[in-house]
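Q: Now give one record:
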Amino acid sequence: MAYHPHATPNFRNMIIKPMWMAMKTALRTIPGIGPRFFSDGYHGKHQVLIDETTAARIGEGHASAGQTYMADRETSPLVQNVARPVTVLYPYERLEDLEPWLFVPGEYNGRIGIVWETCTACKACVRICPNDCLHMESELRVNVLDTVEEEDEHGGYGSSIEAGGYLARPKEEFEEIEDFDLVTTHSDAPQQYDFAEVLDLSGDEVTVRWTETGDTETVSMDGMVPAEQDIVSGRIDLGRCMFCGLCMESCPFNSFFMTNEYDGMSGFTRDELWMDASRTRVLPSVHREAVDEELAKRATKEQAKRDRAAQRAAKKAAEKAGA
């Protein structure tokens, strides 16, 4: 299960940080010293009542645009030395922005994150869901076996690029983001690949039609990886989800994770509660341990399959030679 590091039950998070928070609360009340050294740039100051993301979504004509508020409602311009912390004004403020050590517990079931590269569309999650929240639809994606190089330990067991199929090219501006996590980002995971339909293969070159633009061009095979259309991804209706975590527990491929993310799961219409693949995608680099475990399992299975095929071929060749 994904969890926030600051929610780990240890001496720092359970003893030191709460005591330091209580001491800072008391020190803020000292005239002159408190607001100057212990205000964190937040307490006792006027703040804009809306963040940039929300402002862009609702527009300048919304009633909330441009409003300000006093973070500590006990203070005033006349008596600014008395600063008593109050409840965070969510969603305009968030815990990890104000007090990073304050966060939801590790057992909290929040936004669902999915490593789609390890999903096999077995639909165990769909069958186990008591509220019928999960729905499957097709999507172009790269299989986890095709994300490793040939020279790697588990490389060489993926599929091949064929005419009539699909391929993927890593985006030039994409960088492997080691610290991306739905726990704190409040945004979609970046898509790592550009996808294209394979029209023709000719030596080291391939003619493709890019799915995003519809343009046709002939490109080199270097850096291209196979892609699959028949792997299906899920759409999650959070309006019906009760965050029971059964989808995570039923997944045999370590694809589902219940994150600590409490944000990004609401909207002004029910359509905004549908979470598609881009809103649930977790990069394999984030859950590297679970992905490597599944990769090793699939590579071993594929190797055994190829060994059996080679044995059958050798047996037939021997029988044919003996005849």
Remarks:
- The mean pLDDT is 77.
